[in-house]
From TrEMBL:
Domain of life: Eukaryota
Domain DUF6594: 93-355
Disordered: annotated segments: 21-48
Organism per entry: Endocarpon pusillum
Transmembrane segments: 280-301, 313-336, 343-362
Protein's name in the database: DUF6594 domain-containing protein
Keyword hit for Coiled coil: yes
Segments forming a coiled coil: 120-172
Keyword line: Coiled coil, Membrane, Transmembrane, Transmembrane helix
Amino acid sequence: MEEGQAGLSLNQGSFSVLNPFPCSQSTEQSPTLPLNYSSTEETQSGSNSSWQTVVNLFRQRKTYRTEDAVPRENGPELREPIVRGLEQCATGYPRLAAFLDSDDNFMIYRRFGFLSSRILLDQQDKLRLLEEDLDTIDQNDAETNPHRNLTRDLLEEDNKERQELLVKIKREYCEYAKFLCAARDVMSFNKPAGDEWRSVENYIWNRKQVEEQETKFIYHKEDLVTLRPGREHAWLDRSVERLLRWLNCDLIEWTFCSKESRQKSKGIEVYYSRSRIENVVATIITSVILILLIVPIYLLYHFTSILIDAGEENVACVGILVTSTLLFSAIISVFTRAKRHEIFAASAAYCAVLVVFIGNIGGRVGMTPASS
């Protein structure tokens, strides 16, 4: 290698390597390479083409990190999540809207079931009258000219009245169907839980953001719906939230409140992180499943090992089997939204696992004295 030449040169016949990552010399440094990185120009015409391909791919894969390219010594943290706090909104409907939007459990509104029924009844009666008019036209045609009811290929003046009436029926029926679908969709919404309703009612009553007459919607409890979709472990979630509110302290808030949830309110309102609560719920569900599997198996093994009388052993095993299956069914019903046939199938599978275990352990225990 000649002195003053940067890189490494290895000559063996026609094979030559000069700096595994060559690039044109420049005073600018790549943001993804160390500052002491040095390069040379390609000076040998016989370089392998594969190395040139590697060089081109390396140059194309250079990336620039935003945090290095954009100085942020001054100005706000542009990459921080933006959270709308209650205090940032004007008093009145803006702040009430911000509160209802601050948590999925607080999105409670009226469904106006009475008005929906009135609209449907009115539209239904309009269709009833149009149906009677169409029956009258059909009956008149049947008496005067029966051929008109057998075909649609009629003169315009002979079929004009019926066609105009059918256009009205079509328009009114489309409106009626639209209202029916809207009412069905609203009826499919979930009812707010008692704790959710109480939280919203307490805020409206204590804060008094709007006129008293306009806050009475929250007291139409039978007419309220929540936009929150039903969760798999809704009952357990609410129980955990209720326990957190009862044990509320600085440690609880530090553990279950994220940075974003703390920014929602500077007052007495406390927002727990939904993801952290779900992690606690998942841990509880997993622990319960493990307990329901391990404890009955241990008890069955224990009783089949210590009981010598076969009658006592059978009674103890059947008692453990029945109790465990009932407890499993109850937990599935309470902790999940499983349907009846799903609960039945899961309980049958759980009971089958325990029965198979009893058969295996019982056979081994019964064979032990004979073999000895």
